[in-house]
Specification:
Layout (H helix, E strand, L loop, with lengths): L6 E8 L6 H6 L3 H6 L3 E8 L6 H7 L3 E4 L5 H11 L4 E4 L11 H10 L4 E5 L11 H18 L11 E4 H5 L10 H12 L2 E5 L13 H14 L30
Helix pairs in contact: 6-9
Length: 255
């Protein structure tokens, strides 16, 4: 049984990522995190892959949840429900994110007493890791999000996040699609203590599933649509526990 206080849940959504899943899981700095006093659970949320993604993930020591309902957001919501850790870390299965920096990000989470951290891919992009169209689309989406919601986020579509489970338990996520990435950041930066930290972005391993124009347009529309939904984004914190104190009965001896 895990001590959830020192447990990190790592969530990796995957769909036909046999080319990248082994490298991704192997890159997690397990020993460094163990040295810092943390234990790990690695959960791969598999979108009913038809290749060897699940088998490779199991061989590398991950738990695998098969989520037949399609969607990036749906995968993460399923993963959040399954996570046991006090800290939750997310990233893609294609080797694009700097998982070696997880200890540094967790240190920031703790030192700054932060609820949510997102990683800015544009800080350092490997040559050829992102097309000009993809980069332009991301810049447009990030600009619109800053304008509509008055939050200072430079990379609205980043999929590497470090957060507390207490944050996840208090938010209501709506999107089942790629737009969950911008939705969770809007909630985090509007209502919680959040940071965007510098990161890196590498060439993906395997075949890309993203349709830049289709998903970009959908995410742009969602930014406007979500304005009506944001008032339902956060639940009230639970009331403090009230302990009933038994009255002390003093018995006097009658002489």
């Amino acid at each position: 049984m895990h001590n959830t206080e020192n447990l990190i849940s790592i969530l990796i959504p995957a769909l036909n990522e046999e080319a990248g899943i082994e490298r991704t899981i192997s890159s997690i700095p397990k020993y460094k995190l163990h040295e810092l006093g943390y234990s790990l659970e690695i959960i791969v949320i598999d979108g009913n892959s038809t290749d060897l993604t699940r088998e490779i993930a199991l061989q590398k020591g991950a738990q695998v949840i098969v989520e037949k309902r399609r969607g990036y957001g749906r995968a993460y919501k399923t993963g959040f429900d399954a996570a046991n850790g006090e800290i939750i870390v997310t990233f893609d299965a294609d080797g694009t994110y700097p998982v070696e920096l997880i200890p540094k990000y967790i240190q920031w989470l703790n030192e700054k007493n932060t609820d949510f951290i997102t990683v800015n891919r544009f800080s350092e992009i490997e040559k050829g890791a992102m097309s000009l169209l993809h980069r332009f689309g991301n810049k447009i989406l990030s600009s619109v999000m800053r304008l509509l919601y008055s939050i200072d986020v430079r990379d609205s579509q980043s999929g590497m996040w470090i957060m507390r489970s207490s944050f996840v338990k208090r938010i209501n996520l709506k999107s089942d699609d790629m737009s969950l990435s911008e939705e969770i950041k809007i909630i985090a930066f509007k209502f919680f203590k959040s940071l965007e930290l510098e990161g890196r972005y590498f060439k993906r391993t395997g075949t890309a599933k993203l349709d830049t124009i289709k998903h970009g347009w959908y995410n742009l529309v969602y930014l406007f649509h979500y304005k009506k939904q944001i008032k339902f984004a956060v639940t009230a914190p639970p009331p403090p526990e009230i302990f009933e104190i038994e009255p002390k009965i003093v018995r006097k001896e009658v002489r």
